[in-house]
Amino acid sequence: MTLMKNPSHPGEVLEELFLEPLGMSPIALAKRLHVPRTRIERLVKGQTSLSVDTAMRLERFFGQTVEFWMNLQRAYDIARARETTDLSDIEPLSAA
Predict the structure, then answer these.
(1) What is residue 89's DSSP assignment?
(2) What 8-state DSSP symbol labels residue 5?
(3) Of the options 1.20.85.10, 3.40.1190.20, 1.10.260.40, 2.40.50.140, the CATH number for the domain spanning 10-81
(4) What is the chain's mean pLDDT, rounded?
(5) Dist. CA 50–CA 53, nearest whole Å
(6) Domain boundaries in the chain?
């Protein structure tokens, strides 16, 4: 399995594929999800990670599975970690 080299932040996906086509603001979505407006605003700006709680609320509201939303976050996190984590001093285990 290969991962995208530069996956989008889940907030970017939320904004571009869901909110913009509906003409819905992050504040309006936050009200519909019963969460603080700052949670969705910060998510859309890429300032915070997507929580499982928010993913469950998005699943209920939009119909996309919680796994869909969490996989976006996972792919984003792995891509960022690959860019910033130095593993060069770790010797791979050799088969005997």
Answers:
(1) T
(2) S
(3) 1.10.260.40
(4) 95
(5) 8
(6) 10-81
> What tokens appear for 7 in the block?
């996956």
Residue 27 CA from chain centroid, whole number: 18
Specify the pLDDT at position 43. Answer: 98
Q: How confident is the model at residue 5 (pLDDT cuts 50, 70, 90)?
A: confident
Place of tokens 């770790």: 90
CB atoms within 10 A of CB 83: 9
* pLDDT number for residue 95: 73
pLDDT tens column, 47-68: 999 999 999 999 999 999 999 9
Enumerate residues 6+ apart whose C-beta is below 8 A from 61.
Answer: 29, 32, 33
Give me 45's structure tokens.
């700006």
Residue whose pair of structure tokens reads 């939303």 in the numeric block: 69
